[in-house]
Amino acid sequence: MKKLITLLVLVFISTTTFSQGHYNGSSFNPGDYFAPHAGFIIPVYYGYADMNYYNGAGKRSDQLIAPTPADPTTLHLQQNVKTNSFILMAIYGGKHKILGANWGMMVIPTLNSPTANIALDYYSSQTGPGNYVFTNKSLGFGDMYIQPIWLSWTKDQWSYALNYGVWAPTGKYKLHDLDNGGLGYWSHNIRGAVRLKTPSKISVSLASTLELNHKQKESGFREGTHLTMDFGGSYLLSKRGDEVGLFSHYTRQISDDIGTEETLLSDRIWGIGGYGSYWITPGKIGLMGRLTQNFAAKNRFAGTAVQFGVNFLLPSH
């Protein structure tokens, strides 16, 4: 039975960890770093997140404080940011191999309320002390993820993957605007992954993602490079392909921000969560639900996110 693809990538995708930059750790389930079966997959998801800001000391805070003596700005912000996102993905798995590898492609447009990334961008762009409350309730298009390179090789119980994707700034962005739907810059995601499938129906995986960011339009600001390590495992419940799993991640900024808006210190975050998938019609229609909890955050929003949705599979025979 073909396994249920349970990709969950929110802008970014907006509801899992709200990193600075586009990619959030644990946006994929443990088996989803590897190319899908031949044919089309159309996942449709809804996500909700409840996030709070944590300062450079890792403490929940209502203040953003600039790190330089020349700019001692203190911003008081509403502690809580809640977001809603709707994701319609288009995934294609190729019939034949490329360089001996299974291959696929992915496009993810997003529709979301302004995310905590955007709230953080808004707060950090302010230039004087004061009180700012992020209460925007608008809904619009966010940035789009495109993954044209999705390769995976399998030998015995081991699988290896190499992925490249780009975040296009398709969401509305205007400097210092409250109702932005995107971050205003391109990001490149380069990812390698490895997976071990055991005879006991358990699979474990490890993936590493490097995110490189371009300059933000209108401001000239460039977000630093981030490195994310994703860990996970899954257990196959039945021959139908139903499964449950656990996942975790660690993200850290590994280079400095550059530009006039560099008001925040380097950031980091941990996260852990679980998921379950069930086939309504085996090999054609499946359900998936996820829960993610973030912790040990510094200079980030962190909290709890839930996502659920349905996957429509159109296999190529």
**How many structural domains are formed by the residues?**
1
- Distance between the first and last residues' Cα: 14 Å
What oligomerization state is this entry in? single chain
The level of helicity is under 10%
**Mean of pLDDT:** 81
List segments where confidence is low: pLDDT < 50 over at least 5 consecutive residues.
1-19, 65-69, 122-136
Over the alpha carbons, how many angstroms does the gyration radius reach?
A: 19 Å
CATH superfamily annotation: monomeric porin ompg
Share of residues in strands: over 45%
What is the 3D form? globular
Number of helices: 1
- CATH architectural designation: Beta Barrel
Order of helices and strands: EEEEEEEHEEEEEEEEEEE
The CATH topology is Porin
**Which sequence of strands runs across the widest sheet?**
1-5-6-10-11-12-13-14-15-16-17-18
Instruction: Report the structural category.
Output: mainly beta
**Major β-sheet annotation:** 12 strands, antiparallel, barrel
CATH class: Mainly Beta
Can you describe what's shown?
The structure is a single chain. The chain is an all-beta fold and 317 residues long. It has one domain: monomeric porin ompg (Porin), CATH 2.40.160.40. 3% of the residues lie in helices and 51% in strands. The chain is built from one helix and 18 strands. A twelve-stranded antiparallel barrel has the order 1-5-6-10-11-12-13-14-15-16-17-18. β2 (63-65) and β3 form a beta hairpin. The longest helix has 9 residues, at 116-124. The protein is globular. Residues 1-19, 65-69 and 122-136 have low confidence and may be disordered.
